[in-house]
Amino acid sequence: MPEIGHATFSIGEDEMEIGMGIHGEPGISRKKLAPADKVIDEMMERIFAETDYRQGDNVAVLVNGLGGTPMEELYILFRRVAQLLDQRGVKVKHVWVGEFATSMEMAGASVSVLHLDEQLDRLVAAPANTPFFKHFAS
Fold this sequence. Notes:
Blueprint: E1 15-18, E2 29-32, H1 36-50, E3 58-65, H2 71-87, E4 91-98, E5 109-116, H3 118-125, E6 128-129, E7 134-135
Parallel strand pairs: 3-4
Antiparallel strand pairs: 1-2, 3-5, 6-7
């Protein structure tokens, strides 16, 4: 951090943390690096535990890079999220993959899944044009 002159946390080259905040706040668990599908399986298990997604539900998915993760890797993460939702019969209606909220010198990603009702679906589909987020309606 520029203001204090040192990092707010450290993590080993072969480690990852699930649930870490974008400012380095401690997460749920720290463990050895794992394949992308295994990491997403664990993340989605927690998301599914919070909200009961059922066949026929519609969702929007955001995969956010934290600044140091290549887009290709973010799309690998999204691929697995989409597979797990599809297995439950959940339709992904809106997708955003990219860097929307980043952190200095941070690799990794966050996954957000929004359950859509008619009103939220309409609002999420609306055009937006801001410095950090652009969505153009088709």
